[in-house]
Write a structure and sequence with these properties.
This protein is an alpha+beta fold. The protein has helices at about 15-25, 65-75, 80-90; strands at about 45-50, 60-65. The chain has a domain at about 15-75. It binds zinc ion.
Length: about 100
Amino acid sequence: MAWTNSDRAQRLPKNWPTIRRRILRRDGHACMAVFSDGRRCGMPATDVDHIERGDDHSDANLRALCGWCHQKKSSSEGGTAAASRAVRQARPTAQHPALED
Ligand SMILES: [Zn+2]
């Protein structure tokens, strides 16, 4: 094969830019992350996140996130499914800018 394997954790499909645009539009360009107190982030979304890590690029597995939430999720994701499960149950340890009173 001539193409280079970038070794990314997630292999994005060729039409990812199209998918990404569609998800951002679907979610109103607002971050869909929900905090432990039930409030939605709602910050302007710049990223599209895979709810379950892996190669499921279906709309149901994608959501818009702001850069802050996406980075926070990615940084706490390990390489295992167990770590992925832990992320979804974990409470945020740092204060999100949108939650500052
Ligand atoms: Zn957010």
